[in-house]
Design brief:
There is one protein chain. The longest helix has 21 residues. The protein has a single domain, classed as 3-Layer(aba) Sandwich (Glycerol-3-phosphate (1)-acyltransferase). The chain is α/β, with parallel strands linked by helices and 304 residues long. 41% of the residues lie in helices and 11% in strands. The chain is built from twelve helices and seven strands. The chain is elongated, with a radius of gyration of 28 Å. α7 packs across α8. A seven-stranded mixed beta sheet has the order 1-7-6-2-5-3-4, sandwiched between helices.
Length: 304
C-alpha cells in the first residue's frame, strides 16, 4: 500500500478527520432536537406519572420479627390514637371478630384514615392475619414510604392501571396462604364521601377463589382526614359490618361485585334487613364463636 494513502484518498487522515467532525456535528444537532435544558414547549403533552416497578420482595412484612413489631405499633399507637380521635362505634363486629377461613373485606374509601380504623375494628386475631391492598402508584412510588406502610399496615402493592392479571394472581396466593384481604373496590378515595362504582376485580377474586366477602362501611372518616389534607382532626366515626356474602351458583364476577356494592350502599343507608346484617340467631352463633373454648384433655391425668 503506497505511503500516500495514509494522507489522502478515501481512507486518508484528512478523510477520517472530516468524517469525525461530521459525527460531532450530527450529535450536536440531535442534542438541540431534544431541547436539553430548555423549557418544555406548550404544545407538548403533560408529563404523566409512570407506575413504579413492583417491589422485589414484600414477604418480610409478613414474617417475624416484623409481625410482632407491627402488633406492638398497632396495639400501642394506632388503636389508642383511633379511640381518642374518633371514638369509633362498631356495629356487626361479630362477623369479623372470629373468622373460620380467609375472607375478602370490602369497604368504601374516602380517607387515608379508613385503613387503620377498619383494622382497629377487626380485633387482634383477625387484624394480625389481614393484608391491605395499597395503590402501587401512590404508596410505592417512593420506596421508603412503601416500606413504612408495609411495616405499619401490612400492605401489598397493586396497580390501579394495567397488570390486573398479576394483581389477581398475587391476591389469590395470599388468600390461599390463609391471609384475609382488605380491599377498596372504588379504586381511589371519594372526593365527597359518596360511594363510587366498584371495580369488577373484587367479584372475580371472590368467584375464582370461592372466598366469602364481608361488606363494611365507614362513616365520618372524611372529616378526620379528607383528601388533600395531611393533618388529622378529631371527628366521630361509625363502622358497620355486614353479613358475609358468598358467590351463588352460576353468578358471574360482575353480578357478584354489583351485589357487594349494593350491600355496602345499604350499610351506608342504615339498613338492618336480615339479608344484610343477619338474623338474631345468626348473630348469636357468630358471637358465640368468640367465647373461649375449654382446652382438650388427653386423659384424667393430663397436665393443665
Amino acid at each position: 500500500m503506497p505511503a500516500g494513502t495514509w494522507y489522502s484518498g478515501e481512507w486518508g487522515i484528512s478523510s477520517l478527520a472530516s468524517r469525525l467532525l461530521g459525527v460531532v456535528a450530527d450529535a450536536r444537532l440531535m442534542r438541540r432536537g431534544f431541547h436539553s435544558g430548555t423549557p418544555r414547549p406548550a404544545t407538548w403533552a403533560e408529563r404523566s406519572t409512570a407506575v413504579p416497578d413492583r417491589p422485589s420482595d414484600l414477604a418480610w412484612a409478613r414474617m417475624e420479627p416484623v409481625r410482632s413489631i407491627r402488633y406492638g405499633i398497632q396495639k400501642g399507637l394506632s388503636a389508642p390514637f383511633a379511640e381518642v380521635m374518633t371514638h369509633p362505634q362498631i356495629e356487626g363486629s361479630e362477623w369479623v371478630q372470629q373468622l373460620d377461613r380467609p375472607a375478602i373485606l370490602v369497604a368504601n374509601h374516602s380517607s387515608h384514615a379508613d385503613t387503620p380504623l377498619l383494622l382497629h375494628a377487626l380485633g387482634d386475631r383477625v387484624r394480625e392475619r389481614t393484608v391491605v391492598a395499597a395503590a402501587a402508584d401512590y404508596f410505592y412510588r417512593r420506596p421508603w414510604l412503601g416500606r413504612v406502610v408495609s411495616l405499619w399496615l401490612n400492605t401489598f402493592p397493586f396497580a390501579r392501571s394495567g397488570g390486573a392479571q398479576e394483581v389477581m394472581h398475587r391476591s389469590s396466593v395470599l388468600l390461599k396462604s390463609g391471609w384475609n384481604l382488605l380491599v377498596f373496590p372504588e379504586g381511589t378515595r371519594s372526593p365527597d364521601g359518596r360511594l363510587q362504582p366498584f371495580k369488577p376485580g373484587v367479584g372475580h377474586l371472590a368467584v375464582e377463589n370461592r372466598t366469602p366477602v364481608i361488606p363494611m362501611h365507614v362513616r365520618g372518616s372524611q372529616r378526620v382526614l379528607p383528601k388533600g389534607r395531611n393533618v388529622p382532626l378529631p371527628a366521630p366515626v361509625r363502622i358497620r359490618v355486614g353479613k358475609p356474602l358468598s358467590p351463588g351458583a352460576g353468578e358471574t364476577s360482575r353480578d357478584f361485585a354489583d351485589r357487594v356494592e349494593q350491600a355496602v350502599q345499604a350499610l351506608a343507608k342504615g339498613s338492618t334487613s336480615p339479608e344484610l346484617t343477619g338474623s338474631w340467631i345468626e348473630r348469636w352463633k357468630a358471637s358465640d364463636k368468640r367465647a373461649p373454648r375449654p382446652r382438650a384433655r388427653l386423659g384424667p391425668e393430663a397436665p393443665e
